[in-house]
Design brief:
heterodimer; A: alpha/beta; Spore Coat Polysaccharide Biosynthesis Protein SpsA, Chain A; 2 domains; 9-stranded mixed β-sheet; 19 helices; 12% strand; B: 8 helices
């Protein structure tokens, strides 16, 4: 690794990690062709570090995947106008580091480079933020770093306020399942922006996952789950609204589901010992001032989702028979046959059993794992359609209350999963 | 002096008896070899079945749909038993040939030689068909899931089509391997496949032109006007 060290906001030039010596705070920004947005992120980080941690030695690491749009130049040149931002401009020991990452292309490999530099520089607290963020403010750095630096937490998960129909995979699968499994109420387990201790960064590096899917796309859930399952001190920080560039608008939903849900299922295998005995869940400490955001109307094509659900139940029915229990199959047939959209309700109990049966099928290696997870797509769309139906007129708080019910259903049915996972039923 | 009766009847009979006596040891050896083969075949069958069960292949065959497919073909035995039985007959057959070889009958020798030279081809052909069937099942299911996820209403037909094409490919390759109607089959397959593709192209082109236009118009209109679009963010 031959990073370019860029000391101070205006200077630039090549340098070595050794020249930096030890640092207190490291903020990593993974990037790949993010020239349009990364400048704002770098400035927010720089202001955040100067404003909230003026006496600390800090470094910003841009771990780049070979951008060709001048991302690295934007990072080098981005500089905050402190005179207009801070009343008192306190010069801290802030440095910038632009380095390419090596290995499998993906966010995970970029993070690995960040962890390595954090270990090498002896960073006490670290944070990683996405390079396509448009809503990041200097306060994010304070909220992600301070709980580690001053409160002794090892992992800070982000808590954003999002539109009620944003993050439907998180809301319907990842959050309730992770919460039921590991017993901690981490609202955004795949948020993308995290704070963590140097100790946890070193722990991550020891894990042999850097050639697997984790290196590509499963890094967010992997970081959260690894921290949860290994008893690190966890909290969450309320960061406000998250606005970022759309993640590849053409991305295939089933591929997305395969990546995210597949990662959760893989981690269930690895940490079966950690989650099988956990009952119920408890809240985690939350930093920041929580507020709600407005609900601008968005367009949701519920009819199309129901149509996809019906098609899936009709054509994939024989395939589902290999791993879904009879009562779920009969529920799905019944739901698909309902002609009225208003009566289309995918009951929480049936949804929980569906997800758990998919996890069990992957665990037992019934059929091809990829086929199992990708065949979840129409059922997931059915659940989302049902959720939209139920919550169309609800406020953000009412939607959260509805999600709480779903989470409790996951917790209640956990024994169903545990018994079958261990082959007792 | 040999009487004519001796010459006509007794001598040939003696000759036959002598040849029979000379052949008897070979025959007995052949019978013993065959009997040993039967015993060994039974042993091999038992061992193969036990080993396969040890690796839980029965459950794997059930999960992958092999057992279902066999049942549909009216095969009542489990795949593992079927493999065991195949090994039994394979060993029996080998020992049967060995027994015939031991008996040293020139005509049978010649026949056996031809058969033995042909056996590897049959074996390879069988493997090609089995692999084709398994691949067809796998890719057929992949096509089914992908087309359902893409919202295509003819998903099961697409899946069956993919499966069928792969199986037909495998069968043609198997026939090619054993040399049955080599040229005829390849030409027939090429004509049939090309014809099917042409027919489909014409059918879609002529029959579905209005549908295609409507679809494209709708799609591009959708993109322009945002009609029917989802603003949902799944992640």
């Amino acid at each position: 690794m031959t990073p370019d060290s860029v000391p101070g906001p205006a200077a630039s030039g090549p340098g070595q990690l050794d020249e930096l010596g030890e640092v207190d705070i490291l903020v990593g920004i993974p990037s790949f062709n993010n020239a349009k947005t990364i400048g704002h992120v770098v400035r927010a980080v720089e202001v955040g570090l100067n404003k909230y941690f003026p006496g600390r030695r800090s470094v910003l690491v841009n771990s780049d995947g070979g951008s060709t749009d001048g991302t690295a130049d934007v990072v080098r040149e981005a500089s905050a106008d402190f005179d207009s931002i801070l009343l008192e401009h306190r010069i801290g020991g802030f440095r910038k580091l632009v380095t390419p990452y090596h290995g499998v292309p993906g966010k995970g490999s970029a993070f690995r480079t960040v962890f390595q530099i954090a270990r090498q520089l002896g960073a006490k607290a670290c944070a990683v933020v996405d390079s396509d963020l448009r809503s990041i403010t200097p306060e994010w750095i304070e909220l992600l770093v301070k709980p580690v630096l001053e409160e002794g937490f090892d992992y800070v998960s982000p808590y954003y306020m999002r539109h009620k129909y944003d993050g439907t995979i998180t809301n319907s699968i990842v959050y309730p399942l992770t919460r039921a499994l590991y017993g901690k109420r981490i609202r955004q387990p795949i948020g993308g922006d995290f704070g963590f201790s140097g100790r946890l960064a070193s722990f991550y590096l020891e894990k042999n996952v850097w050639e697997s899917d984790v290196a590509r796309f499963g890094i967010d859930i992997w970081m959260t789950t690894t921290a949860l399952a290994n008893d690190f001190r966890i909290c969450q920080a309320f960061l406000g609204a998250k606005i970022h560039d759309a993640k590849d608008p053409g991305a295939d939903l089933s591929a997305m589901l395969h990546q995210v849900v597949g990662s959760v299922f893989d981690l269930m295998e690895e940490y079966a010992g950690a989650w099988s005995a956990v009952k119920g869940s408890e809240p985690v400490a939350t930093f920041g001032f929580v507020y709600s955001v407005g609900l601008e109307p968005i367009h949701v094509n519920v009819d199309r989702m129901i149509e996809m659900f019906r098609l899936g139940v009709k054509d994939l029915g024989p395939f589902y028979k290999a791993f879904l229990p009879a009562d779920v199959l009969s529920f799905l047939d019944d739901l698909a046959a309902r002609p009225d959209r208003r009566s289309f309700t995918y009951a929480d109990g049936a949804w929980v059993k569906t997800i758990m049966s998919f996890a069990l099928a992957c665990h037992r290696k019934d059929v091809s794992r990829e086929h199992i997870i990708k065949s979840l797509t129409p059922l997931y769309l059915g659940k989302v359609a049902s959720f939209v139906n139920e919550t169309w007129d609800c406020t953000a708080e009412e939607v959260e209350a509805r999600l709480e019910e779903l989470c409790l259903a996951f917790e209640k049915e956990k024994s169903y999963l545990v018994e079958r996972w261990n082959g007792k039923a | 002096m040999n009487s004519p009766i001796d010459k006509v009847f007794i001598e040939p009979l003696r000759e036959v008896a002598r040849k029979l006596v000379a052949f008897l040891p070979s025959l007995l050896t052949g019978i013993v070899v065959f009997a040993a083969g039967l015993l060994l075949a039974w042993l091999v069958k038992v061992i193969v079945v036990r080993v396969l069960r040890l690796f839980k292949l029965d459950a794997a065959f059930t999960r992958s749909g092999v057992s279902d497919a066999l049942q549909k073909m009216a095969v009542k035995e489990t795949p593992v038993k079927l493999i065991g039985r195949t090994f039994f007959w394979l060993v029996t057959f080998i020992f049967f040939i060995l027994a015939l070889k031991v008996m040293k009958v020139p005509v049978i020798d010649q026949l056996l030689e031809n058969l033995l030279l042909f056996l590897p081809n049959i074996f390879v052909a069988l493997i090609i068909v089995v692999m084709g069937w398994l691949l067809g099942n796998f890719l057929g299911r992949a096509a089914l899931i992908a087309s359902v996820n893409a919202g295509i209403k003819l998903s099961s037909q697409i899946s069956r089509g993919v499966k069928g094409v792969i199986l037909v490919f495998a069968i043609v390759m198997a026939f090619e391997q054993v040399g049955i109607g080599r040229t005829t089959l390849v030409v027939a397959f090429a004509i049939a496949f090309g014809g099917a593709v042409l027919a489909l192209a014409l059918a879609f082109g002529l029959g579905g032109k209005d549908l295609a236009r409507t679809y494209l118009e709708k799609r591009f209109k959708k993109d322009r006007e945002g009609d029917g679009r989802d603003d949902l963010r799944h992640l």
